[in-house]
UniProtKB/TrEMBL annotation:
It comes from the Bacteria. InterPro entries: Bac_CellDiv_Activator, Cell_div_ZapA-like, Cell_div_ZapA-like_sf. It comes from Lentibacillus cibarius. Activator of cell division through the inhibition of FtsZ GTPase activity, therefore promoting FtsZ assembly into bundles of protofilaments necessary for the formation of the division Z ring. It is recruited early at mid-cell but it is not essential for cell division. This is Cell division protein ZapA.
Amino acid sequence: MTQDDKTRETVEIYNRYYTVVGRESPSHVRLVASQVDQKMREIHDANQHLTSTELAVLTAVNTMSDYMKLKEEYAALLGSLNKKEDK
C-alpha cells in the first residue's frame, strides 16, 4: 500500500479527535467512529465511574465479543449452506 492509496479522516470519538489513516472511504471511517462513540457512551451511561482508559478497554472487549459471535454465526450459516448443497 502506498501513501497515495491511503485516505485521512479526522473523527470525534468520546469528545476527542483522532485522525484515521487507511484505505477505507471517509464515510466508512465516520460510520465506524460513530459506532465506537455510541458504544462508549452506552457503557459510560451504565458505569459512570470508569476512566477513559477503562471505558476504551471495555468498549474494545464488547466490540470484539460481538465480532466473534457474528463470526461464529457466519461460520455456522456457511456450514448449513454447504450441507444443503451437498444433498
